[in-house]
């Protein structure tokens, strides 16, 4: 048994024991003379242990007996586990085993992380490696306990664990210039169940990108797609119509590229016997699905890229000569195709299910003559279209809007925006192709040009009432050639861009919508003034971190006819500074981008900040292009 003396009695007995030079032995004294005499010499550290605050036993220390103060150390005698606690959580919770204290199980700790905390210029494809002080319970290595955060949102990725290391492999490359936080929760435990004592955190910042121009196609090309979409993985989908002969514009082709490098050979989406291919348009979904839609004499055709394979061409519509068309594939796999059908004086919407099967009949948005549809699709599956239509009663142009509801899998009828109808007929009252953008919550913004002014109108989410159109461009005269102004939703608000003209001077202007005041801010002039007659609207794109790219072409001196040798200008807005950087020439005389004046400049940027545009060398003899090149920012 164990003897415990405390208080005055403890002090008195201790003094008596010292005066006799012996103490009564307990059952614990079993060696030497103690076995026969039941007495023994007092030995430091072996006297009866002190009580809770008295004078102690042989030596000062109160509760600690001979050992000064505090709880017993490992190996000391005990009755309950609390007798062994030393108050240090890092070495685990001590226990009492058969009357003796046993050491605790130390808590695991993070001993390193790669990239190290606050590392900058991290490569987008980097994996995060976290090393622990000991082996873990694999069941505790979960997405709930170990996360890589983009703001408040955990990014998708794969966790793996071996030995003492956890590896996080992001599903998609990390965003350029983006900051990410690595978070390890106390739910992580070692093999014996001891948890991390405190959360672990570190951060990293990804490097910036740079432009590079790469030749990608070297064959006669009749038409270039008006889009160059990029997946979240950084894969760009280029489509074009090949020139099989001087009078044969087919087949339609598609090819994937990453950072300007081919990911395989091109694919013929139509047979070479197909006739008069036109209007190629490419789009991609975040999951990596691709869609190319084009027209033949028999109507619209589409091919879809899923699971690494292109489908056969599928009939979509019977419109033989569409006024214009546009398509998009959503994150949920649902694809949309909006087509202005001049023969039927109608605007029609075609939709697929998530597996890519097109609806048997279109949704009729309007039964009136229309051209130039624009289309926006959100991550959540919302979609909206806007187009310029001719009122069947007044013959005046107006801007019409229609929306798609995922729950109903249906498009609404088109409705004219209040105040968008022209006051007269003729070219001076013409409306441009509109631009449309959607927020994830369903706020819609539409821009168009009327009487050489940029007009804007907003439809709040859940409302049916459009705001009265306002003029964004002030007293400036806007380039009026039927092209749409640029418009994006950057994840927080709407941003617009357009070209103004004063004589031979062309300027690029931007404006930002203030969601707090529900109003547009004053426009800002960007770029450098020039005396060229490029006659182009700029293009504006955004990544997932509110960084923007503005791109516009400028004609170089010495051009003749409709073929323009151009330089491509790019200007970037960084959300971290809230400012636009200086303009940068991406392609110039030494590596020119060449376009026919009526040709598109396909340009886009993905959520990670990877951007690209395509240009070609015009064939001045046979028309079309002799080659194509991609300028990629990565």
SSE topology sketch:
Layout: E1 4-5, H1 7-20, E2 23-24, H2 34-37, E3 39-40, E4 49-50, E5 95-97, E6 100-102, E7 110-114, E8 119-122, E9 128-132, E10 146-150, E11 153-154, E12 157-162, E13 165-170, E14 179-184, E15 200-206, E16 211-217, E17 221-224, E18 235-245, E19 248-258, E20 261-262, E21 267-268, E22 278-284, E23 290-296, E24 299-306, E25 309-310, E26 314-315, E27 324-329, E28 335-341, E29 346-351, E30 363-366, E31 370-377, E32 383-390, E33 397-405, E34 410-411, E35 415-416, E36 435-438, E37 444-450, E38 453-459, E39 470-471, E40 486-489, E41 494-502, E42 505-514, E43 519-520, E44 524-530, E45 539-542, E46 548-555, E47 563-574, E48 579-580, E49 584-587, E50 593-596, E51 603-605, E52 611-618, E53 625-633
Parallel strand pairs: 1-4, 8-15
Antiparallel strand pairs: 2-3, 5-6, 7-9, 9-13, 10-11, 10-14, 12-13, 14-15, 16-53, 17-18, 18-19, 19-20, 19-21, 22-23, 23-24, 24-25, 24-26, 27-28, 28-29, 29-30, 31-32, 32-33, 33-34, 33-35, 36-37, 37-38, 38-39, 40-41, 41-42, 42-43, 42-44, 45-46, 46-47, 47-48, 47-49, 47-50, 51-52, 52-53
